Amino acid sequence: MALHRGLGVGNFIRSAAFDVGGYSWCIRFYPDGYADGEEDSRDDDDDNVAAFLELLTEDAEVRAHYDFRLLDRSTGTSSSVFSTAAPQVFDTLDVREDNYFAWGTDELMERSELEKASAYLVDDGLVIECDVTVIMEPQVEENTMAASDVEVPPSDLSSSFGKLLEMEERADVIFKVEDEVFHAHKVVLAVRSPIFVAEPDEGLILDKKKEFIVVEDMQPAVFKALLHFIYTDTLPAMEGLDGDEKKEIVKQLLVAADRYAMNRLKLICEGILCKSLDACCDHGCHACSS
Length: 290
Known about the structure:
Blueprint (H helix, E strand, L loop, with lengths): L12 E2 L3 E3 L2 E8 L17 E8 L5 E12 L4 E7 L4 E4 L10 E9 H5 L5 E2 L2 E2 L1 E8 L6 H7 L8 H10 L6 E5 L2 E5 L1 H7 L1 H5 L5 E3 L3 E6 L4 H13 L10 H17 L3 H11 L12 H4 L1
Parallel strand pairs: 12-15
Antiparallel strand pairs: 1-3, 2-3, 3-4, 4-8, 5-6, 5-7, 5-11, 9-10, 12-13, 14-15
């Protein structure tokens, strides 16, 4: 670094360009310190070296976090010396005297500290690393950001509909599958599967409130899993079943998904089955064939 002493305050050395997030960047290093246009009144003993991250891509506006790190040459590890708490906007759309295309710190480290017995400076060489994280999401308005400070719990819609499935007294349709019965709600079934809308109601009316339908060619465990997916959009845990038993349930659930035109469930089952080399099915599993 001593070789670059006397370069002058405000003058810098550029690193080689590197790409992050589809944009080109470089590091500016100011061995004699950074000047912001005002008269530099710092004492020589208190001078700091400075480092800035510069956006090289033209006609771009990028939000990014950055973290300047110095490499300890004795251990081979680096430590953070300056990082941003919030993303900065790097703008090369309208380059003005204000360097909105370059952000950093004019107090990376005291020069006197570096030039003493420092593990960072070896053979007049200093290694500066910069971790750059480009924010791809569009910037939200300030009032929206303030609202986001309120902690919002995750959606419980799936679990709520799962509880609805358990409310037998509120059900208006009963399915009999072999020796087991399952209670459900016509409106939920109709929304989730077009088959329940297209086909006319079949079965016996019980007490003018509930319809009774017999389901053929399906095991109770499979129909139970089908109902669980209809209400929660997830597959049940299938606890207590070994690998082969789970695979068999998924195979039959794939047939049920095809029967009731539930394409998302069908694709999920195809994905599970096609992870096994011997699981390619005879039901148009395009995931296996591809």
